[in-house]
Amino acid sequence: MGKLTSFKRSLWVFHASGGSCNACDIEIIAALTPRYDAERFGIKLVGSPRHADVLLVTGAIPKDFADKLRRIYEQMPDPKAVIVIGNCGTSGGVFYDSYNIAGPIDEIIPVDVYVPGCPPRPEAIVDAVVKAWLKLEKLEKQLEGKEE
């Protein structure tokens, strides 16, 4: 894993829940509570995708939510990263091959980091955000013309 160096501001995260059982959502909240305290690293949940650098997506995505998820993704400014939390978003989980599921999230929007588990531990979620942070730093350097 690389060293965090040049992302100039706090990392703001928007959470979209597509149809999860809320287990992954609870683990995301646990990552923000005082035990893990992701906010001390500048990782903060925001209420609008227009302010977010990272999109956290949980749950198997129903067909009627797929377009809404695409719109959420398109509203985010560049550079941006997407993290899928849990087995349902990664592969469909227990809902795999269900008639009303649009498919894994990477068939709807590009995904940068997967966090497997049902539900994944908060440590895994914080680790995934750090990986997304590294990707954003790399993209920002490319945008500035300082490619590594």
Automatic annotation (TrEMBL):
PROSITE patterns per the UniProt record, alphabetical: PROKAR_LIPOPROTEIN (PS51257)
Domain NADH:ubiquinone oxidoreductase-like 20kDa subunit: 21-131
Superkingdom, natural source: Archaea
Molecular function GO labels: 4 iron, 4 sulfur cluster binding; metal ion binding; NADH dehydrogenase (ubiquinone) activity; quinone binding
Keyword line: 4Fe-4S, Iron, Iron-sulfur, Metal-binding, NAD
InterPro entries in the cross-refs: Complex_I_20kDa-like, NADH_UbQ_OxRdtase-like_20kDa, NADH_UQ_OxRdtase_20Kd_su
Iron-sulfur among keywords: yes
Cofactor(s) of this protein: [4Fe-4S] cluster
Cross-referenced Pfam families: Oxidored_q6 (PF01058)
Listed NCBIfam families: nuoB_fam (TIGR01957), PRK06411.1 (NF005012)
Family: Belongs to the complex I 20 kDa subunit family.
Protein name: Membrane-bound hydrogenase MBH 2, subunit Mbh2J (Hydrogenase subunit)
Source organism: Thermococcus sibiricus
